[in-house]
Amino acid sequence: MNTQTTHNPIRWGILACGNIAEKFADDLVAHVPDAVVYAAASRDINKAKAFGERYNATKTFGNYQELVDCPEVDVIYIASPHAQHYEHTLLCLEAGKPVLCEKAFAINTGMVSEMILKARDKNLFLMEAIWTRFHPAIAQTLDIVQSGQIGDIIHLTADFGFLATYDENARLFNPSLTGGSLYDIGIYPLFISKLLLGNPKEIKALATLAPTGVDMNTSMTLNYESGATASLFSTFAAQTDSTCTIYGTKGKIFLHGRFHETKGLTLQIEGQEPQFFETERLGHGYSYEIEEVQRCLKASMTESDKLPLQFSLELMELLCEIRSQIGVVYPQEIS
């Protein structure tokens, strides 16, 4: 059985060198002093070399196998498209490397279950990179809710949308790359509702599909045992406010846009003046999840207690139920 080891600074390997990896590495270098981008890998060696030069990486590779086989790498961040998360996570875990894998964790619950089983079999750390979970604004929101200041949550609304140029071959619209608004951005409204309200007892979803068969817009209504409800929405067809409002029996919390990376929230208690709280967000906002991974690694933990693997599995169950209702099937699932 493999056991994970770490060094100081912790040496990160970056698997896939696209835009999200650049933002992640920007924050790692600027805001996490006990971390370095040690290695980077891309199927295009020139892309890996350019990425490595930008972040002063010690090693660059033109394939992912060489990255996972690199003995000096302590942990790997997977930044490939959703459709490849399952394959790349198993590749890393099999090689004995702890993993932080971008959301959505995989395509379906079967894949996520296999990833979790492999991590546990190898005694290795694994976490879905839902960066929002570790933002100071979310921590403050949880504190306010748990303190009872807004009473019991009655309803939650959250949206995330932007106008994307339609291109059937682009990642956002290509079914082979697990395109669609639900997996790319709808996961954020779904995440915040699950974090605050738990698992729904009932969920209803409607969508408008793009010509490629992935969802352009998805609207979700959720009902909870507590009596609370939630209205969630994602779209590639319009720029939305991308805010979240949590309505309670005594008041409400408004997470300013874009809520998943917000720098501020407003607390409105009935009969009182609104209170605005400015919240920290260093850089792009990825340093907080990096610090969480490193905290767990240094403590020899194999999963985060703030974002446990069971949470990610249940979130994927919700995503799959929504896809079932709206009729989105990915090619990898067709036998």
From TrEMBL:
SUPFAM superfamilies in the cross-refs: Glyceraldehyde-3-phosphate dehydrogenase-like, C-terminal domain, NAD(P)-binding Rossmann-fold domains
Upper lineage: Bacteria, Pseudomonadati, Bacteroidota, Cytophagia, Cytophagales
Keywords, alphabetical: Oxidoreductase
Pfam families cross-referenced by the UniProt entry: GFO_IDH_MocA, GFO_IDH_MocA_C3
GO molecular function, one term: oxidoreductase activity
Residues annotated as domain Gfo/Idh/MocA-like oxidoreductase N-terminal: 10-127
Keyword Ribonucleoprotein: no
Domain spans labelled GFO/IDH/MocA-like oxidoreductase: 143-253
Family the entry assigns: Belongs to the Gfo/Idh/MocA family.
Record-given protein name: Putative dehydrogenase
